[in-house]
Predict the 3D structure of the following.
Amino acid sequence: MTLPRPVTTPRPTAITRPHRVDLFIALSGLAVGVLLWFFGLYTSADRVFEQRWAALVPLAVMSACEAGRRTMPRAALIVGTLAIVANQFTNGNLVTVLMFTDIVYAAVVYGPPAQARRVPYTTGLITVAVTIGLLVWWQNALALLVGVITGMVSFLPAMTGAIVRNHREAAEAARLRAEQTALLAEMDRVQAVAAERARMARELHDMVANHLSAIAIHSTAALSLDEPATTRQALTVIRENSVAGLAEMRRLIGLLRDSGGDTEPAAAPTLAGLDALVGQARANARPSGLVLVLDDGGESDAGLPAPVELAAYRIVQESLTNALKHAAPGEVRVLLGRGPDALTVEVTSPYGERPGPTAPGSGAGLVGMRERVALLDGVFEAGPVTDHEGHRRWRVRAELPVAASDEERA
């Protein structure tokens, strides 16, 4: 015989006040039992204690046990068992028997886990033992009827309580799983939102910072130099960068607003656009005494994954922007090295005090570059170095793994 495993939820150990529902059941049972006793409705006759009042004692004790069925299930079961046995020596009361079945049920549902496991087995063994004992003693079919009644009074309520407790355990486990699933989903949502916000911040910074830095530097130059030709040249550069920056902003806003997919998304920058990027930066950097050189290590037959091309493009773009802001006059070199396993991007610029107007920096550019490389499991370095001629230069170097699936290369 396999019984349902009861719930193992902890139960309070301290005795508390009886539940109001239990008090109502106890008082109602006592009232109905007294009513049956008043009209002389007994369950049996010819008992050891034939006095009418004797049947009221087990009834009163069982009512008290009903009041503690939820707060003291173990004590209620023990005392209730003694009361049902005492009830057999009196004329008996039907309400006493019915309240005992409820106490057995409550002992399994509300009792400690060990008690909840033992009660069904114990009542089952008692039912079998009573049936066999009466068959041996009486040797007639009446013993089977008494055994069935014993099982209905003890084993059946215990089994019902075990089933109810098992269902409550399953419901509680399902609720906990639902809460955990909701919590994990919320954590995933928060992480996804944070990652998207970081990606948007990197894109916005990389797209606009270059143009705004050129605008800031050339506007400062135009204000500080009282030369019409220089002012006109500075205003021309300012206009070109403001128009380009506005176009980039419109493209980003369009991507953010496009939720239905009715418009074609703008293509992400690739390494094929590096010539145009360096050419634009060269025009912006000429008044600052910077000379930009692009040294491409040669085309590779195999295409690069789109995330790698985008990261490399943005790293070069941000490095040129930082050189325009902070580099001393001299050569700014952009070097691309393509190997079978990684794409190397290196940008070096003169390191030292910059004469003339500069644009303030926030440090977000280096953070964005480092994040881009980390997302691709690459290696990023940025800091001052000394070249073979002994000159101090600022170097940004990134190694981007190019191993990708066919879908990523498509």
In short: Residues 348 and 395 are 4 Å apart (CA to CA). Strands lie at 290-296, 330-338, 342-350, 379-386, 392-401.
